[in-house]
Amino acid sequence: MRGSVGIISGETGSFDFKFLISDSTAVHRGEYVKAWHEGDGWVLCQVLSIKRFSDKVSIKKSFDEAKKAFEELKKDGKDRKSSDRIVAEATVIGSRDPSGLLRAPKTPFSPGDDVFKADNDLISSVLGLSGNEMYIGLLDGTDIPVHLSVNSLVQKHCSILAKTGSGKSYTAAVLLEELLDRKVPLLILDPHSEYASMKEPASKSADFRKFGVSPKGYGSNVTIYTPANKVINPNADELFRLNGNNLTAKDLTSIFPENFNSTHIGILYESIQKLRAEMETYTLDDIIFEVSNNESKARWNVMSLLEDIRDSDLLSSSPTSLEELMQKGKAAVIDFKGVAPDLQSMIVAQLCSALFEARKMNAIPPGMLVVEEAHNFAPERGFSKTASSEVLRTIASEGRKFGLGMLVISQRPARIDKNVLSQCGTQIIMKVTNPNDLKSISKGLEGVNSFVEDELMRLPPGVAMLVSNDIERPVLIDVRVRKSKHGGESVNVLKSAQTSSPAPAKRAPGPVSQPPASSAPVQAEGSAEAGSPPPKRQPSRQPDRQPKAEGGGLFKKIFGSEK
Ligand SMILES: Nc1ncnc2c1ncn2[C@@H]1O[C@H](COP(=O)(O)OP(=O)(O)OP(=O)(O)O)[C@@H](O)[C@H]1O
């Protein structure tokens, strides 16, 4: 029949069948085809594998026999290949019934019936690729656009998993552009300074025509915050600061738990109790003063630790507010450049706890938290322990009730907390080759078989497997080109080695700006409730400045260099 690519052959079922094809280029692995079913009409199917057999040049023959058979075919002027059998294996996806539900046939397909290439409308409607808002790319090998739903992506979380250099942050930025275009507030935890480039439009390329998008910069929508300072991170727009007022002993010791022993905690506790009895609002300087009055010799160590925390400038009486960070149509990027891993984790713990609490109280709008390098912030038990694990687990399991979504990005799926990963309703998986990572991905995905694992090992950059509640089956997508500039380019080592070194950058004097004070500061855990900040005031007492036990050690630990 015209347009037929093959004939259903041999034993058939209602879930799969094989079909013979005459031309090996007629269909390819992964392609969508359709077959007529007497009960269900046109049914969408997908080619799982294609195999080619030759009875004349068979592996059951010896090398000499096979060679002879081949030579004879050539002598007779016959094309050796014309006698080959090419057999494709198809899996049945189904068809939409009049009420829009996906149905799978209940009786086998008929041997001898033709198989055709599936048309775009059938593929799109059966798989459920259209009808949603977020345009993320084209179904691989076709020009069919793939859309995801904002609600389902944000409420039910999303993960992007792939080995390094496979396009995770590129794909994440595509999702973030779509969310920003729809005014969803974004809070991005960015350990490698990859998202600042979203401010600028991408340079024009042929891909823009292919995907039907145009370059766009998000300059006025993206703000870069640094927990360090503007000398360490000159690209930052604002300083990120945690609330330093009315801190409890628990708040302070949670910053670096391993540095405070029980004697230190006792001194802190006693000093803070005294302050609370006397003052409505106290600062870190007040605590240091009170500790200096303690009679224990251990006070010098406690003071030194507290002075290091104070000197890091991370705690402030004018903290960064959550309302400032979570605004409709805006992305706040916490750029961790120059911040040591321990401190990153502590900041994520404090910030995300405050974020979750504020969202529960409806003090900020619903939005998305983006966690890059998630294996470092929410590691699987047994790999490592971090301050941020618990709150990220809580957001993963309870965030959807409060409209706080998580986009989890990692190159080591096997090392992320399974409680976090298993909550992601949308999974975007790019090339993965590590056997442990492959195993952990396929364990967490429904309906994923060894075919999918093989596929994941061979994906080219920019192609992703998408598993989503919105889409009936895992599909391969060609992720659309970014509208904004990509910031995760690899360093060209050879080029860099062969060009002359730039002059060292001049040091800027101190922090350049202070973040504005506002009504919902990011509170250190356990301190006053988010949404009602303590009034700002100058420290009432100045502690005696004693020589530090190890001058500036913690500051170096935090930021890796002097201010
Ligand atoms: N959809 C795409 N279209 C075009 N190019 C892409 C696409 N995805 C990725 N790339 C290219 O692949 C390169 C690597 O992508 P990306 O930086 O996102 O990888 P990554 O997985 O985040 O890497 P890392 O783990 O090192 O951060 C990019 O420089 C980009 O040019």
From TrEMBL:
Name the residues that span the membrane: none
Which Gene3D superfamilies is this protein grouped with?
P-loop containing nucleotide triphosphate hydrolases
Write out the biased-composition intervals (Low complexity).
508-524
Residue stretches of biased makeup (Polar residues) = 493-502
Q: Which GO terms describe its molecular function?
A: 3'-5' DNA helicase activity; 5'-3' DNA helicase activity
Where in the numbering of this chain does the Helicase HerA barrel domain appear? 5-65
- Coiled-coil blocks: none
Pfam families in the cross-refs: DUF87 (PF01935), HAS-barrel (PF09378)
Q: Where is this region: Disordered?
A: 487-563
PANTHER family per the record? HELICASE HERA CENTRAL DOMAIN-CONTAINING PROTEIN, HELICASE MJ1565-RELATED
* Protein name listed in UniProt: Uncharacterized protein
Q: Which taxonomic lineage is given here? A: Archaea, Methanobacteriati, Methanobacteriota, Stenosarchaea group, Methanomicrobia
